[in-house]
Amino acid sequence: MSIELIVLDVDGTMTDSRITYSEMGDEIKSFNVKDGLAIASWKKLGKQVAIITGRSSTIVARRAKELGIEYFYQGVHNKKEILESLLAKLHLTMENVAAIGDDLNDLQMLKSAKISFVPQDASAYVDQMATVVLRKKGGDGAVREMIEYLIKKEGLEAKYLALWE
What's the CATH code of the domain at 97? Predict the structure, then answer.
């Protein structure tokens, strides 16, 4: 079975896990543009992307919209439960899922996915059960590294590169 859906945590995977507040109380996060290009490319290959995150943030909602991520869930306590609900909606199984997370609140979701990824700076407890520990840190291209790993594993390199020729 092929991977049809990638599930992304946000803080610590799409970002470096820092949350900065301005004097006015505005929240500031930084996203890696290379991750964004890889996400857009994955979608162009006809694959699905979901964000399931424990925190709620207008910044993350904006990033999801920019990337055209249709399946976006914030303020989630039980990520595995949300993922199971999404799979039913998409008529997929965990065999079709690759997920990335970095901390304890991602553990059950990562254990359930066919392939699980963690950034190099993830919690040691999450590292122990991951299929792949990435070389990149969260917010520093870890999501792109995950997607390119999947592109190779799924035999999609020619199609992936053709998107940009």
Answer: 3.40.50.1000
**Is the pLDDT reported for residue 1 higher than 90?**
no
Total count of domains within the chain: 1
Contact between residue 143 and residue 152 where contact means Cβ atoms under 8 Å apart: no
Q: Whole-model pTM?
A: 0.95
d(CA 88, CA 75): 20
Distance of CA 118 to the CA centre of its chain: 10
Distances, alpha carbon 85 to alpha carbons 6, 71, 89, 96, 97, in Å: 15, 11, 6, 14, 13
113: which 2 tokens?
């996915």
Instruction: Say if residues 96 and 81 touch (Cβ distance below 8 Å).
Output: no
Max CA-CA distance within the chain? 50
